Each structure stands twice: as structure tokens, then as C-alpha cells.
Amino acid sequence: MSVEPASEYPVLLAGVRDEFHDRPWIPPGRHWPEYPDLIGGQDLLASGTWLAVDPRVPRAACVLNGRGPLAPESGRLSRGELPLRFAATGSVDDLDFVRYDPFHLVCATLTRVFLLSWNGERHERHELTPGLHVVVNSGLEGSDPTEGPGTEAMAARLGFFRPRLLAAPRPRPVPQVATDKAWGPWLPLLEGGGVDPLDDRALLVRRELGERTWGTTSVTLVGLRAGGVRYDFSGAPGDAGAWTAVVED
Q1: How far apart are CA 120 and CA 99, in angstroms?
Q2: Do the Cβ atoms of 96 and 82 come closer than 8 Å?
Q3: What distance in Å separates the CA atoms of residue 8 and residue 11, rounded to the nearest whole number?
Q4: What is the pTM of this model?
Q5: How far apart are CA 246 and CA 200, in angstroms?
Q6: How far apart are CA 137 and CA 245, in angstroms?
Q7: Which of 15, 106, 110, 238 is 20 to 30 A removed from 54 (C-alpha atoms)?
Q8: Could you report the average pLDDT of every consecutive run of 10 residues in the chain (249 residues)?
């Protein structure tokens, strides 16, 4: 995520979703009758989303799994409702945290961007100041001290991609141009940066776990500006021809 308040596009958000490939989902759309203005891809198991956008406000939110003890089965709520909740209301102030598994929720408007993190025992809110911010399952810039699967890989990913994103010219994702023109400086990196999916540094990952495949299932790019949103989506990460402009207000 890039935050530059003085820019025409104060907030740029890139969301990379990793999941089991056999978990059913559908591409971005207006899938929630109770939230008719929201757009996002829908997870068909829990009905929520990993990233939601309200183009009118504009407002966006993206959730990642965190680390820590899971919520009790009785009364557990899906983390997929969290992006919908913020995108629809602009608030997550009254969450019943103990009903959610650990998460990191990026919340963005034109004037405020923050990260809300819950580790199953305590929650923290970090206001994101101007600059580049990278959030992974181990937290903001990998700062969560909790050990867990993939710690070394996430550190390697941050070490490889963060300086390259920082060095790339900040995109200006204007409407009515192709995705590669809108996001050009970032797009080669977000299409994998030439790193093998099996490499620990990989942004677009793939692992064979017994009879199931786990890895990157989609990439989303969102630019917020006064009066509109640029929203691009790929459901075939790494395929330069798979990008679709979902919203170009």
C-alpha cells in the first residue's frame, strides 16, 4: 500500500490473495444485497470477501489472516465480513474481537488509512503515515514476533519486493487506459517479478500439500481518488492477459 496525501490518488492498494485452489469463489461484483454499493470478489464458503470497495465514497478494506489462538467454534464469525463492514460504514469500532480468528485489516479512505490487527488476545491499530507499507500474515512489515509457518518466507518476500516497489515510480492509475498503462511501474512486480512460485521470496506462490494445491488465486489493484476509484483484478496471477478493469470511475 502506498499513501501520498498530496497525490491525485492518495491511496494505492495492491492485494494478493493466497488460498487453497479448491476453495470456491467468484470474481468481483456487487454480490451482497445488504451492501448494494460494495464491490469485491466473493468467497462462496463463508459468503464474505478478502477485499471490498465502495466506489462512491470512496473507501476500501482488505483482510489477511493473522497469527494466534483461534476463536471458539461456538459463536465464531467469518473474517470475510470485516472488509464489507468497513467499506460499507467506515467504522470497525465496535467489533467483538473474541469471535474472530486472528486477522490484519487494512482500512482506507482518502484522508485516513490504518491497520487493525488482532492476534486472538489483544488488538492494535496502526495509523499508516505517508509512504509505502507492506502487510503480510506476520503483520505490518513482518513485525509480529509470533513464530509460525512461513516466517522465513515472508521475511524473504519483504526483503526482495519491498525495495523494488519503493524504487519503482508511483503509479498514476487514470481511468480509460489499459491495466498495464495504469499500473505500469508496479505491474511487473505484482505479476511475480520473475521469481519462481516455489522460491521463498515469491509474491505469487504455489505449494502442493498432499492432494491439494495452495497458492495465489488472485491479485487486486485499487486506486482511490476524489470522486472515483480505479479497480483492476486478475484471477490468473502471473498471466499478463488476465487483467480486467472492474471500475474506472
Answers
A1: 9
A2: no
A3: 9
A4: 0.96
A5: 31
A6: 27
A7: 238
A8: 97 98 97 97 97 97 96 96 98 96 98 97 97 96 80 93 97 94 96 96 96 97 95 96 90
